[in-house]
Here is the input.
Amino acid sequence: MRITPIIETYFLEADIDISDWDALCDAATDFKSTYDVPMNTIQYEDTALMPRIEDTPIVKEMVDNILQTVGQATSYPLELYELWGCKKQYKQSMMFHSHWDPKIHNHANLSFAFYAQADERNGNLVFPMHIYNCFIERKFTPGRGKLVVFPSWLFHYTEHEDNPEAPDRIVISGNLKVSE
Ligand SMILES: [Fe+2]
Here is the structure.
């Protein structure tokens, strides 16, 4: 008998194929020279992508695939709320954070991380959780095309990039909210 911890219900994990990975990586990392968008909601994750959805077909393709995948697992309509790219190199990591901020009445309900460039040598995505007196750590191993969906309030971080042979880790993250 296999027992699945109930904590697994927090997450959705899927693999998504993209027609041009190089174009998606470029879109996720070269934004700042083209657009001028306030960075207040993405201070710890690098590149605002929302304005690129309509004029960058590869970003639209990714968003459509993600929304379709998430839509198959939820019983309510969701729409994209925020989208940003993040590149981490050797010796870098992502600080402990969540995507829901009560101070600014952030509407995010579900969030996701999508790996545009990464493999198992990159730092894991880690969700430390305390439930009553139990400490649980859910780790996701990076891989190109992997989608990880989680509740926006759930805190997480990434392990240090400690392998000099690993590729730069390029992740596109976003927040979804329930459609009104
Ligand atoms: Fe995050």
